[in-house]
Design goal:
single chain; 186 residues; mainly alpha; 0% strand
């Protein structure tokens, strides 16, 4: 049986929770209490958490924002493709985090929806964590990465294939492919 920690500093936890600077899990680790206990206490006492920013990375890790669009100086396609690849990489990291913490997320969903009168919210949240949902996300990200790679080719995919065909054909569209080969027939 787990040992109860009766010396939990709830006022400090409440201050950090209300500030919204750190995740609930980070606060729980710092004060050696479960994140579920913090969530239950917050719900019971009506704590209202400040909205966290979407970019939770440290300032030194954040990628610079893309420059504003300027119709006179359009961005290079390679720069746009590089930004897209970076975004796909970050989304793959998020997918990896969800996959590696699936059990914990399911426990959190169960505890957050235990007071609901019907199971529709729980079912929808569990569906978002399901294998088909994560597999579809992976498939979509792979397709996006493929599209970015094809679009960032200097001439585009079709033009690159045409250039390759011209090089093989000796510069002419109808050039011979090579000398005929003899085959023995029995």
């Amino acid at each position: 049986m787990a040992k109860r920690n009766s010396s939990i500093n709830w006022p400090a936890i409440e201050r950090e929770y209300l500030a919204g600077e750190c995740s609930i899990r980070e606060i729980a680790d710092r004060y050696e209490v479960s994140d579920t206990a913090i969530r239950k206490k917050a719900k019971a006492e009506g704590w209202k958490r400040a909205v966290r920013s979407a970019n939770r990375r440290e300032p030194d890790q954040a990628s610079p924002p893309p420059p504003p669009s300027d119709p006179e100086n359009p961005r290079e396609p390679t720069a746009i493709a590089d930004d897209g690849r970076n975004l796909v990489g970050r989304m793959l990291d998020e997918l990896d985090a969800v996959t590696s913490r699936r059990g914990e997320l399911e426990d959190m969903i169960v505890s957050a929806t235990e007071d609901d009168s019907d199971d529709s919210r729980r079912t929808a949240m569990m569906k978002a964590l399901s294998l088909p949902s994560r597999a579809n996300t992976m498939k979509t990200l792979a397709l996006a990465l493929k599209t970015l790679n094809e679009a960032s080719a200097p001439l585009g995919k079709k033009a690159a294939q045409q250039e390759k065909a011209k090089a093989i054909g000796g510069g002419s569209r109808f050039a011979a492919l090579g000398p005929p080969t003899l085959k023995a027939v029995k």
